Amino acid sequence: MRKAPRTWWSSAAGTPLTPKSGVAPGDEGRVLVELPVGEIRTDALPRDRLDLEAVAASDEMEELKTSMRERGQKEPIEVFQVDGGYQLKKGWRRLTALRQLHKETGDDRFARAVARVDEGQSSRIDLYIDMVEENVIREDLSFAEMAQVAIIAAQEEGQGARDLVSRIYASLHKMKRSYIRSFVHLLEELGEALKFPKAVPRNLGVDVVRRLQAAPDLAEALRGDLIGAETVEDQLAILRRFADGETRVAVAPKSQKSVKYEFHVGKSKVTARKGECRILSEVDFSSVDRAKLQRAVEAFEAALEQ
């Protein structure tokens, strides 16, 4: 006896949907719905830690949008219900492509996303694993970013971040998981003193961690040195010297001479540093006559020379 086709139900009116060309019907126990792209929340997990803005503007995103223009949404995204709405579980790229296409074209074809509703109770760790499989493994993300995900997940679960690496990144090679654990140690040990964590190369990060583990009493001095780093180059120089065995690492002389101070003149805020004097004011300087502005700058330079 022939089985009746599965029914898709719309979230808006509870009416059957005709499956879109190329989109597979839902799994057993799951419901497929069409949802307005603007109403699907994406704030359940710290996707911002993965620097997805770069992904949203990448060539790969443009290729996905081209495919969607020509053939529509081929695979459903996955969502779960929360607080009377829907939260994204899987399919950030597809959802982002639909949102961009709708904004760019105004075409109603891209105003709604076909979504598979996961009615099971997924744990937070399961959600992190889904996010990792979609957004980390496919992208050339830094070890620091991957370590940050493990640290945040561990804080939510009350577990050790290094222990969670094996669960969250189970699909990665064990050597890569080992590198992620090293960066977990690096971030936990150095904290906010490491101002540019994503700029730390894999080998350098691992070397620094090895020395920290061999001589944990040096961590405080390293944090103190890193606080003085103003640029990525300063930070990397400090880390390299530390990894090479120096017990106390000084900030490069150039950075030591870099002084910044601020003050106010009337309603204008002045910021001064080497090679730069910036004025923030309510005045629209673009509307000031060029000759008048030039005279003001010349008078400013003349006053400095006195």
From TrEMBL:
Region Disordered: start-end pairs: 1-25
GO cellular component term, pick one: chromosome
Gene Ontology biological process terms, A to Z: chromosome segregation
Database matches in PANTHER family: CHROMOSOME-PARTITIONING PROTEIN PARB-RELATED
Domain ParB-like N-terminal span(s) in chain numbering: 38-105
UniProt xrefs under Pfam families: ParB_N (PF02195)
Domain of life: Bacteria
Stated name of the protein: ParB N-terminal domain-containing protein
CDD domains tied to this protein: RepB_like_N
